[in-house]
Design goal:
The structure is a single chain. The protein is 71% helix and 8% strand. The protein is mainly alpha-helical. The protein has one domain. A two-stranded antiparallel ribbon has the order 1-2. Helix 1 packs antiparallel against helix 2, helix 1 crosses helix 3 and helix 3 runs antiparallel to helix 4. It is globular and about 45 Å long. The mean pLDDT is 89. This is Inner membrane component domain-containing protein. Keywords: Membrane, Transmembrane, Transmembrane helix. Pfam families: YccF. It comes from Amycolatopsis orientalis (Nocardia orientalis).
Length: 124
């Protein structure tokens, strides 16, 4: 079931959502100071391509620096990526077959707003 949902996800919204994260990551990696944001963006891009069967968990070793970084990320990139998830999720929920994909889009909003201090892990 995960494979079927991931393939449908990839075709309907995963490719362009991952492209948004890749563009944000490239922009962040151009500046030396924002490379950690770029790496987090690339990590989420991989998750946005193939989300079913994986989940996002908080890292225990994340500290104040990741909180400050998340605030900066939220202002410059996170809000725009979250808006993309909301618009895509609403569009997918209009169709019956797209409802699980829309819900998955809504579940990706927290990590798109605050990616630092998070880790993407495989589900058993």
């Amino acid at each position: 079931m995960r494979l079927i949902l991931n393939v449908i996800w990839l075709v309907l919204c995963g490719l362009w959502m991952a492209l948004g994260y890749v563009v944000a990551g490239i922009i962040c990696c151009i500046l030396i100071v924002t490379i950690p944001f770029g790496l987090a963006s690339f990590r989420i891009a991989a998750y946005a391509l193939w989300p079913f069967g994986r989940t996002v968990v908080d890292r225990r070793d994340a500290g104040a620096a990741s909180t400050i970084g998340n605030v900066i990320w939220f202002i410059f990139a996170g809000i725009w990526l979250a808006i993309g998830h909301v618009l895509t999720g609403v569009a997918l929920c209009v169709t019956i077959i797209g409802i699980p994909l829309g819900v998955a889009n809504f579940k990706m909003i927290p990590v798109s707003l605050m990616p630092l201090g998070k880790e993407i892990v495989e589900l058993p």
